[in-house]
Amino acid sequence: MRREFESIDDSAALIAQVAAAIHDRQPLQIRGGGTKAGLGRAAEPAGRVLDTRTHRGIVGYDPTELVVTARAGTPLVELEAALDAAGQMLPCEPPSFGGAATVGGMFAAALSGPRRPWAGAVRDFVLGCRVIAGDAKHLRFGGEVMKNVAGYDVSRLLAGSFGCLGVVTEVSLKVLPKPRATCDLALALDASDAVQRVAAWRRAGLPLAGACHAGGVLRVRVEGGAGSVQAARDTIGGERADDDAFWSRLRDLALPFFDDPRPLWRVSVPAAAPLDTLPGAQLVDWGGAQRWLKTDAAPADVQRFAAQAGGHATCFTRGVTDAPFQPLPPALLRVHRQLKAQLDPHAIFNPGRLYAEF
User: Fold this and answer.
1) So what's the pLDDT on residue 149?
2) Could you state, in order of their start, the residue ranges of all structural domains in the chain?
3) Distance between CA atoms of 319 and 224, rounded to whole angstroms?
4) For the chain, N or C: smaller number of CB within 10 Å?
5) Does 356 or 68 have the greater pLDDT score?
6) Strands 28-31 vs 48-51: parallel, antiparallel or unpaired
7) What is the pLDDT of residue 144?
8) CA-to-CA distance for 323 and 304, rounded, in angstroms?
9) Across the chain, how many H-helices and E-strands are there?
């Protein structure tokens, strides 16, 4: 049975708030469910709060086209419930953080879950979006069908911009059918052996959909047709895991590992990067390409390691550093400033949230 959810078009009120902020030269703090409020820098100055949760609802969904369009304030769990009823899913597995996360926040932060190395990132599934720009115009980028790629690069550019370039009001996403079969396995291995084995299984073409190492145990998720899942299980070995909620708790940073009071860092590096360079407790996700680190190490040391390994590090604990995102090279910083000047000429959208320079 199809579930019905609340649908409200509040775009006119949001546009009016942006227009008033432009007139008053008053910055806006764009906010949805607030689940990522502690990620990034505190906006400077904080300004007025623009709450997108009043603008919600699924405005278009045709399962046969594998495309869904939802307003920014739509709770992510409502979108996922609608997709699940049709046997479909968001392959990028974005965190819902206890059910409070919104579609707009998913798009603005572009955080992807455990399936990301094999399925793709949030921005890979963005087909288009609507945005209130820095002149209070309500713009549309991209399309609502997979063949329409006009403006697709702009939509991808806005994904992960933390609201610094405009107020996202609507997002069109590509979705996929849910896998026919799933198996979750556990193997007792050290981190180095775990990363090497996952790399070998990837080269062998096994249908991996998750690989996480913590506490001396490698958890592996395989998905696909029943035959391919069984063959992968025979190859991987190990024991069937009995914790069905493991992957959703990993996605939402709710495993016991994350209870450690030390600052939390996400270190994104090539899977083959050294595992024991930094002090602290480590959870290795994405087959080694994403490391969650609980450490008291100096922020500069963490970001230096990430840069030298060919990646980047982000601090997920507010107040530890004034530069929670990896510092940008001068040339790339100039590009970011130019984009900010073009899309937000009055600098009213979440100023300073990503970097102090814009």
Assistant:
1) 37
2) 11-177, 181-315
3) 42
4) N
5) 68
6) parallel
7) 54
8) 13
9) 10, 17
- Let me know: does 251 contact 227? Beta carbons within 8 Å: no
Can you tell me the distance from the alpha carbon of 233 to that of 239, in angstroms, rounded to the nearest whole number? 9
Alpha helices (runs of H) in 61-102, residue ranges in sequence order: 76-85
Region of residue 332 (left: phi > 0; alpha: psi -120 to 50; beta: else)? alpha
CA 326 – CA 315 distance, rounded (Å): 9
How far, in Å, CA of 261 to CA of 279, rounded?
15
Task: Summarize the confidence of residues 32-36 as an average pLDDT.
Answer: 95
- Give the three-class secondary structure for 80: helix
- Give mean pLDDT, residues 308-335: 94
Would you list the DSSP string of 295-318? --S-HHHHHHHHHHTTSEEEE-ST
* Torsional class of 205: left (φ above 0), alpha (ψ -120 to 50), beta (otherwise): left
Q: What is the pLDDT of residue 4?
A: 62
Instruction: Supply the CATH classification number for the domain 11-177.
Output: 3.30.465.10
Closest residue by Cα to residue 321 from 339, 302, 307: 302
